[in-house]
Write a structure and sequence with these properties.
One of its GO terms (biological process) is transmembrane transport. Residues 27-50 are annotated as: Disordered. It comes from Alicyclobacillus acidoterrestris (strain ATCC 49025 / DSM 3922 / CIP 106132 / NCIMB 13137 / GD3B). Belongs to the bacterial solute-binding protein 1 family. The protein has 448 residues and is of the alpha+beta class. The protein has two domains: 11-172 and 328-400, Periplasmic binding protein-like II (D-Maltodextrin-Binding Protein, domain 2); 174-324 and 409-447, 3-Layer(aba) Sandwich (D-Maltodextrin-Binding Protein, domain 2), CATH 3.40.190.10. The chain is 42% helix and 11% strand. The protein is built from 18 helices and ten strands. The protein has a five-stranded mixed β-sheet with strand order 2-1-3-10-6. Strands 8-7-9 form a three-stranded antiparallel β-sheet. A two-stranded antiparallel ribbon has the order 4-5. Helix 2 (64-79) links the parallel strand 1 and strand 2 (83-89). It is globular.
């Protein structure tokens, strides 16, 4: 899960307009599309044996991930002659990015794609609009995408008000990365299991000066690991009814304060600017940071970037009062109002993508999680894990996964928090004072 931060100020407000046009298209009965059968062999009813049903699919992951998606879509089209999926990269989906902005605009204009990738934190925003099809009946009937078939914790971002509006697509969790070679040199035998251990290890691992300095730990100045920090410190982000920000308590700011202390003490470095996430990943790859918290979706890049330069590993995130892991990545949703034939074809494509063989293939191609329990047991995937043990960590973390607040205003809250995090790490602002100010602004977003 790589973010290019920047939620448009109009994005959350647009949802009210989107919701107002919820009735502009004829909503289809969810049970009209077949939810059963083998998605590798079942064909969609087209009404014509010579004309395939065309499905438009918007997604928001680029570079090599876009190439991987196009490769798999091409494979689907070749094996399903009655369906043609046209997949188009629409810019980043992360943090309310360009793909999500375009999707809101297309919904408002009455011309959305048939299916689209939805960033996990944006699901409440889109589901509340009434423009996403309720997939609950299809999932319950499906032999492939029955809820019990998915890995534990995998569905935490797909529901809104008790119904399923998405199916896990490119899913990730944040994991702990560490340089085993530097650990050995520092006489540290294991990765830290707690934040007190991380602080102590960061001091031992910091060495050198100037351009040759190696920092013990590099915080990622982003709201995704911040979610983990708040919940793992024993705090909460919003109240139980999502009406009030609660991330300004001592428990919620404990880990954040420890990170800032490491930065001020010269044991941690932080990257800034629009490419802050990629820069942090590269710092680890080049041995400039001995530890960091990054997406499991970065593991492929890390592995190829490090090569044989040093030994590295991943570990479960250090806990504080507890351990809570936020979901990351995206889900795939079907738009309301498309024809029965398109809906049936779209559902067949989604079932094919998430079936064990394809889910394992996608995971091995990209580093994202295999979303199905059966996918983990695929022989090719088991061989992959033996060769790449770093990927086991994400699977082990799923039992600690906790849903983010299901509020349509949550993305706006996160934008506020991101600004505060930048002030804390870029300018050295007080953690306590900043979070109090951000909580007050978030309350305005939640109740405005």
């Amino acid at each position: 899960m790589k973010k290019v931060w920047g939620i448009s100020a109009s994005m959350v407000g647009t949802i009210a307009v989107v919701a107002s046009v919820a009735g502009c298209g004829s909503t289809q009965n969810d049970t009209n599309a077949s939810g059963t059968g083998n998605p590798s062999t079942t064909t969609a009813s087209t009404g014509s044996s010579s004309q395939p049903v065309t499905i438009t699919f918007w997604y928001g992951v680029g570079d090599t991930l876009s190439t991987d998606i196009q490769q798999m879509v091409s494979e689907f089209n070749k094996t399903h002659p009655n369906i043609k999926v046209v997949a188009t990269y629409q810019g980043s989906y992360s943090g309310g990015g360009e793909e999500q902005q375009k999707l809101l605009a297309a919904i408002k204009a009455g011309d959305p794609p048939d299916i689209a990738q939805i960033e996990v934190h944006a699901m409440p925003l889109f589901a509340s609009s009434g423009q996403l099809a309720d997939l609950s009946p299809l999932m319950q009937q499906s032999s492939v995408d029955k809820p019990s078939n998915f890995l534990d914790g995998m569905l935490v971002s797909t529901q809104f008000n008790g119904d399923y509006y998405g199916v896990p697509f490119n899913r990730s969790v944040p994991v702990f990365y560490y340089n085993k070679t530097l650990f050995q040199k520092a006489g540290i035998s294991n990765p830290p299991a707690t934040w007190d251990e991380l602080v102590a290890d960061a001091k031992k691992l910091t060495s050198g000066s100037g351009s040759n300095k190696v920092y013990g730990f590099e915080p990622l100045v982003d709201w995704w690991p911040w979610e983990y920090a708040v919940m793992s410190g024993g705090g909460s982000i919003l109240s139980s009814d999502n009406s009030k920000a609660t991330f300004d308590t001592a428990a919620a700011t404990d880990i954040l304060s420890k990170e800032q202390e490491l930065v001020k003490g010269g044991y941690s470095n932080v990257e800034t600017g629009p490419q802050y996430w990629d820069l942090m990943t590269q710092d680890f790859i080049h041995g400039k940071a001995a530890m960091d918290i990054d997406s499991i979706g970065s593991a492929g890049e890390v592995s190829s970037g490090i090569g044989n330069k040093f030994d590295w590993g991943t570990a479960i995130l250090p806990k504080d009062k507890t351990l809570a892991v936020p979901p990351g990545g995206g889900d795939v949703a079907i738009m309301n109002g498309i024809s029965d034939a398109k809906k049936q074809a779209a559902w067949q494509f989604i079932q094919w993508w998430t079936s064990p063989k394809q889910a394992a293939q996608w995971s091995m191609l990209t580093g994202y999680l295999p979303v199905q329990k059966a996918a983990v047991q695929e022989s090719d995937y088991q061989a992959f894990l033996k060769k790449n043990p770093q990927f086991n960590t994400a699977l082990a973390e799923l039992k600690y996964q906790k849903a983010s607040p299901a509020s349509p205003q949550y993305l706006s809250v996160l934008q506020t928090v991101q600004q505060g995090l930048q002030g804390i790490f870029d300018e050295g602002n007080s953690v306590t004072d900043t979070m109090k100010q951000m909580a007050q602004q978030a309350d305005s977003e939640l109740n405005g």
